[in-house]
């Protein structure tokens, strides 16, 4: 019985985290079919109303259905989170693998660039980039978050490659005349993907939080529903309609917590120091 309970306990983070990620992706993909109203519907007669049979979670300052806005906001969260991590991981893996394998001046130059980027607060640079954009779009936010986000992946991959490049199978491939790009793509990158996937999982949660923070400050994507923008509205009308802040905040908290649980579970599973 204890073995069953231990197994259930170990699988619980996977279940919760996987459920949160699945719910986010499902909601993002099928938002037009799940939302009862268009997110751009304006009904000034029912602005800032509480929950009713027509609007289960109430409405915002324009009379738009809050449930529909939260559902469509999942699209922004999913696109920003996955796209930002995809770009950062792609650039970071490439730069880190080349830097760690080639070494020398190339490695030194790359590491100094990474040190500068990691020393500078990424959110401040993102705010600067968005502030220079006339009408911030989803892709502008993704670009702003990716400018410094790749550095952490590059440092991680570079450290892994340094420990792998003298392994017998890499030395054998090099002695047989295999080109560097083939060794990196065939032997090194596949063997560093486990920690990269774990970091990418946390990166998705971080990107969703960063986008919500930018939207809360009024620097998020223009013209699309965002959980952070709803929180901004909720902070201004909290005494009139507290649901406007409560439900988007819960959506952010549940999503980020679920993704972090999945990341913790993956890290525990792939940690070589973890006892079986």
Model description:
By secondary structure, this protein is mostly helical. The chain has a single domain, classed as MetI-like (MetI-like fold, Orthogonal Bundle), CATH 1.10.3720. Helix content is 74%, strand content 0%. It contains 10 helices and no strands. The longest helix has 37 residues.
In short:
This protein is mostly helical and 276 residues long. Helix content is 74%, strand content 0%. Helix 3 packs antiparallel against helix 4 (104-119), helix 4 packs across helix 6 (138-164) and helix 9 (227-236) runs antiparallel to helix 10 (243-270).
CATH topology: MetI-like fold
Q: How many discrete domains?
A: 1
Query: What is the number of helical segments per DSSP (H or I, 4+ residues)?
Result: 10
Order of helices and strands: HHHHHHHHHH
The CATH homologous superfamily: MetI-like
**What is the molecular shape?**
elongated
Number of E-type strands: 0
CATH structural class: Mainly Alpha
């Amino acid at each position: 019985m204890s073995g069953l309970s231990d197994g259930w306990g170990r699988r619980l983070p996977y279940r919760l985290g996987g459920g949160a990620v699945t719910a986010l992706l499902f909601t993002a993909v099928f938002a037009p079919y799940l939302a009862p109203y268009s997110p751009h519907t304006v009904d000034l007669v029912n602005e800032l109303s509480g929950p009713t049979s027509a609007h289960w979670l109430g409405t915002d300052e324009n009379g738009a259905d809050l449930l529909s806005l939260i559902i469509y906001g999942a699209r922004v969260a999913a696109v920003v989170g996955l796209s930002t991590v995809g770009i950062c991981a792609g650039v970071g893996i490439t730069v880190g693998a080349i830097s760690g394998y080639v070494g020398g001046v190339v490695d030194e130059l790359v590491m100094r660039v990474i040190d500068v980027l990691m020393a500078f607060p990424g959110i401040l640079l993102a705010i600067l980039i968005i502030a220079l954009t006339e009408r911030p779009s989803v892709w502008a936010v993704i670009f702003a978050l990716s400018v410094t986000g790749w550095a952490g992946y590059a440092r991680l991959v570079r450290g892994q490659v340094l420990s792998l490049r003298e392994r017998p199978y890499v030395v054998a491939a090099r002695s047989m005349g295999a080109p560097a790009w083939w060794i990196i793509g065939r032997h090194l990158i596949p063997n560093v993907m486990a920690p990269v996937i774990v970091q990418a999982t946390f990166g998705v949660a971080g990107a969703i939080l960063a986008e919500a923070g930018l939207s809360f400050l009024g620097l998020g994507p223009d013209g699309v529903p965002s959980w952070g923008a709803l929180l901004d509205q909720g902070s201004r009308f909290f005494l009139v309609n507290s649901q406007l802040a409560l439900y988007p905040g819960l959506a952010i908290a549940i999503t980020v917590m679920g993704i972090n649980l999945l990341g913790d579970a993956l890290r525990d599973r792939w940690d070589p120091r973890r006892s079986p």
